[in-house]
Amino acid sequence: MADEDILGNVTSPLSASALNGVNDFVSGFLSYERKAANVLVAADVDPEALLANIYAGFSWMFLEAAGAEAQARIYLDRARKVQSRANAREGLLIEQLSHWVAGDIGRVQAIGETIVDAFPRDLASVKLHQYFSFNRGDAPAMLSIAEKARAASPDNPHLLGMLAFAHEQLHALDTAEVEARKALAIKSKEPWAQHALAHVMLATGRVQEGVQFLDEAQRGWGDLNSFMYTHNWWHKALFHISLGDEAAVLDAYDNHVWGIEPDYSQDQVGAVSLLARMEVAGIDVGDRWVSVVDKLVSRASDTLQPFLTIQYLYGLARAERAEANQLMLAVEDKALTAEGLDRTVWQQVALPACRGVLAHARRDYANAVRWLSVANPRMQEIGGSHAQRDLFGQLLLDAHFKLGNWTIARQMLEMRRTWDPDGMPVNRMLRQVNLELEKQPLKAAGRSA
User: Fold this and answer.
1) In the prediction, which pLDDT does 341 show?
2) Which family is annotated (predicted)?
3) CA dihedral sign, ordered 370, 335, 385, 270
4) 201 with 415: CB under 8 angstroms?
């Protein structure tokens, strides 16, 4: 009888320990649990375990850092040596890893589509395809790939979580909530469904409900990897910002958002984003930028993903580090040398966004307005979620506010109140804006007198 993974996908022959490593990767990847990393040990113990080595290569590529390709190539080369044993699905996975290491994400995605069409129970491939689509801001593709797998796994909570988040990114909030609650009815601790539901609650102004929901959910986060653990706490902190609960925001940051895996890209940008949002909301963050920026210095030439780079840059500039200039030069070079779709994104979106956040961090609010006004309408193209990209809207609002552009600031604040009607920072800023606007006729009358 052929070996199968935990989802029923046939594998080439594997030892018991290698199969356990593969299953830990598949289940851990889908559930954002630390056990996914066990596949690295399994692959090192058995260099001829084909699928374990493929997934070990994937694991290195998820690091999103310079040097990951070299490490992933070690496992790719091992898989190549025993490729004659590969079944059809594994052969496609080898090619997918090869193109990922080479940086050809378009080809990675095309292969992923082929895999899911032929092997719809391969939910790890569905998840991987969503990962790349998310990084490119392609929510329709996120939904399409998950729908392809629905018939084969209609009651899988991880797939339902993927469907929920795809719908949320498409602004289909009611459908997103239905799918998320289906997932949670099957597996109450499914973290991606919890995450999708937190997005829905944030987008619909259900702030107190969001706090209560995540208060309960966080009891089951003990096995999560650093990304999912810190990111769901990041969402909880956003609710606390809206409520004006500074102590809870700082507690979330200090104990749950920053410091879990401080060398990891997603943990770093989560910290940068939350510190920036706290400052826009009027919260004194003290010296908290220091420990983050100490880790960002190594990102001074990192242009792997524009969504990450922009936030690295903001952190470096906000802490007044000279490396911000180095990273800005790297962005300008990337805008000139990138190819195809990447070149369009870097030239027309990432470059002006970087100029805008750099200006804001340096308190050059006029240039922050200038460049963020160019970039923000197209920010979806750099990836990230609506909630994550809202950082750039907040920085633009803050720049207008600091410049005294009261009419524009009022329009932006009123727009924000459509999804955060009771938010304390929003309403506090709006009160000040309205007071300033009320003064203008009085000032004009004084001048005419």
Assistant:
1) 85
2) Belongs to the TTC38 family.
3) negative
4) no
DSSP 250-287: HHHIIIIISSSSTTSHHHHHHHHHHHHHHHHTT---TT
SS3 4: strand
Express the helix, strand and coil content of the chain in percent, nearest 5 each: 75, 0, 20
CA distances (Å), origin 326, targets 8, 65, 239, 320, 358: 49, 17, 35, 12, 12
**Averaged over 390-414, what is the pLDDT?**
98
DSSP string, 331-349: HHHHHHH--HHHHHHIIII
Instruction: Give 203's contacts (C-beta < 8 A, 6+ positions apart).
Output: 168, 173, 386, 387, 419
Angle between helices 424-448 and 386-403 (to 10 degrees): 20
CB 16 within 8 A of CB 88: no
Rounded percentage of the chain residues whose pLDDT exceeds 90: 96
Contacts (Cβ under 8 Å, ≥6 apart) of 348: 378
Instruction: Compute CA distances 185 → 169, 194, 195, 299, 305, whole Å.
Output: 22, 11, 15, 41, 35
Centre a 10 Å sphere on the Cβ of residue 305 and count the other Cβ atoms it contains.
18
Tell me if residue 10 falls in helix, strand or coil.
Answer: strand
The average confidence (pLDDT) of the chain is 96
Measure the CA–CA gap between 67 and 64, rounded to whole angstroms.
9
- Phi/psi at 92 (5° precision): -65, -40
What does the chain come to in residues? 449
Tell me the Cα Rg of the chain: 23
- Identify the H or E element spanning 11: strand 10-11
Tell me if 50 sits within 8 A of 10, measured CB to CB.
Answer: no
pTM of the predicted model, to two decimals?
0.96
What single DSSP character describes residue 136?
Answer: T
Contact 22, 52 (CB under 8 A): yes
- List, in order, residues 6 or more apart from 57 with CB less than 8 Å away: 72, 73, 74, 75, 76, 79, 97, 101
pLDDT of residue 66 exceeding 90: no
CA distance 40 to 275: 34
Tokens 């909301």 belong to 281
